């Protein structure tokens, strides 16, 4: 009986290993933990969650202060991505706190954070750790008296219709988003020195961030297109974070009409915008991998351990992009390889055969030492590729120099004439009286 | 004044010529050999000045062969000259043997460095 129990526990503990999860071979996240303030969000945001589950994600909904939640157990992460739809949470339950969320992102997992007009300090702190600063005034919302959404009741212009998207097909998809996106919440600003954050949806130049219920006593600190409504961060370990100040942006919406324009859209751009950007955040698009780095002398096929100066060599690499279901060849004309020793001696653009194979031929420079083949590829919205392979380069051997140069014929002639002269002189000297 | 210095120079030149005519033929042959070596060296230097010093090792090798030959020939002339008190007891065959051996080493080095 005890043995049966033992075998049973062993068998059940092995089951998690068989589940399909986040791995380098399949980079799309699968298991997503969604933390909410109350479960009514499940129905008010059902369209967004439905689009996620239809693409194969396993969502797990928990209350933000549920004492049983945890991101990892026994050192292994239970989820591949985290969605924080709990703007008013004061303290997370279980073992989650700001430090564990930061560790979660540092280990390469993705994060979506949605704040709202009642955002707590905890959510603001999470956003600051990610590089985004929400407006410090807790009662401020983004107001725009020119680009607000027309609605049936006389609003205070906090529901704005924005179409100031970033121009990046890899983040927002190749199909243009026709209808503006509805937004109602707080705005944030980005540090211009931070090169990892991007403004995906920015407010128009007539927007400002202030308390809608009170009169303005001093000019608002955040104005114009410095206000970002939706931002993304791609960390150096390729973890992706989406931060926005409006939870209601994700909710089920109907049509929109921008004030000042006569076009009345049946459907707002929210659904298309959020679907496309979620695809990017969860690594269904824009995720590159580089495999099969090879280099060899032109004409040979095996990889030498050392090159000589002034050798002709060929370098090749294969780059693939994850399409959500499979690895497709990545086609681009701006991947470059460097032959680097303290500074690049050779910088060459790799040519592609359109099937993901990139190659370039160049001549080893006239300098010997230990070089590296370096490919540093960082493009907006794509994961960064940083490949480096070390290879030594030796100078000429004693018998590899050029011989019988036409320019040196006079010197050869003089050396031989000296030898001939010496020979003739010895004869004359010996046999003259 | 200029005329007398001109006459002195001419007189000097004439006395040099007549003194030189009195040297033994052997030494004159060695002098000719040295002149040939120096002349070849000069040709190479002029060539390098025109064309540039690309195979510098070849240039050095060529010039050194000429200069080395000239130096060894001058040493032979010193040792063989009967008027030279210092080498009175040195048999001229010994001097010649030294000359031949040194030239062999010189040409070995030149061939190695010629590239």
UniProtKB/TrEMBL annotation, chain A:
Native species: Citrus sinensis (Sweet orange)
Family per similarity comment: Belongs to the DDOST 48 kDa subunit family.
Domain OST48 N-terminal: start-end pairs: 31-281
Name listed for the protein in its UniProt record: Dolichyl-diphosphooligosaccharide--protein glycosyltransferase 48 kDa subunit
Record carries keyword Membrane: yes
Chain's role: Subunit of the oligosaccharyl transferase (OST) complex that catalyzes the initial transfer of a defined glycan (Glc(3)Man(9)GlcNAc(2) in eukaryotes) from the lipid carrier dolichol-pyrophosphate to an asparagine residue within an Asn-X-Ser/Thr consensus motif in nascent polypeptide chains, the first step in protein N-glycosylation. N-glycosylation occurs cotranslationally and the complex associates with the Sec61 complex at the channel-forming translocon complex that mediates protein translocation across the endoplasmic reticulum (ER).
Primary site of residence: endoplasmic reticulum
UniProt pathway annotation: Protein modification; protein glycosylation
OST48 middle domain ranges (all copies): 295-433
Compartments reported by the entry: Endoplasmic reticulum membrane; Membrane
